Each structure stands twice: as structure tokens, then as C-alpha cells.
Predict the structure of DUF1232 domain-containing protein.
Amino acid sequence: MLERLKTFARALKADLLALSVAVRDPRTPWYARAWAALVLAYALSPIDLIPDFIPVLGYLDDLLLVPAGLWLALRLLAPEVLEDARREARERPQRLGRSAWGLALVIGVYLALIVLAGWWWTQRGGPAR
């Protein structure tokens, strides 16, 4: 079981590296590039949707959201772009590190969600009286 998890983690890291290469490929459509950038930003961001210190739920986003987002991002890529990106990621190993741009993007998305929730709350009249 532990060996399967290690293999899954290595495959996930390899696909994240390939995705980071595919984002810069001009053959990647804008919508796939945008989704891939969000997935990479979330995966590399030090801020999680559910903080890790919350028992069980804290790791659920890492175990479900990142692989699900990665799966969709890989499906949005053309097969030849994905193959070229995987080949380049294998030939020129890069390091996925924490990204200031990723942090800024995730914070921006969270702030936009908070503003949207506040707007929705005020539109429906606020708390019941």
C-alpha cells in the first residue's frame, strides 16, 4: 500500500512538471492554460482551501482537489502537447517550488470569492431579522 502511494505521488509530481511545461506551450488553448495555471498555483500555494491542521479534512483537499484538477487539466491538453511536455519534463527536470505568483493568484481567487459571497449576502437581505 505504501509503495503504491509513493508511486502515485511520483506520478503526480511528474504530471505537475509536465503541466508547467505545457502552460508555456503556444499550442495550448487559453482555457486549458488558465485551468492549468490555477491547478499549479493551488498545488504550489502555501495556502490551502482547508487548512492542514484540521484533522482528516485538512488533507482531503490535497488528496482530492489537486489530483482532480490535474486530471481535468491534462484532459484539456491535446495529446501531442501533453506528450511533448512530458518528454521535456523528463529530459530537463525542473524543480516545482513555492511560487510568489501562485500565492498571489490563490489569494486573489480567495478574495474574489469572499467579495462575491459578501455581494450575494447583501443581495439577499443579510441575516434574517
In short: Residues 100-123 form the longest helix (24 residues). The mean pLDDT is 83. Residues 102 and 108 are 10 Å apart (CA to CA).
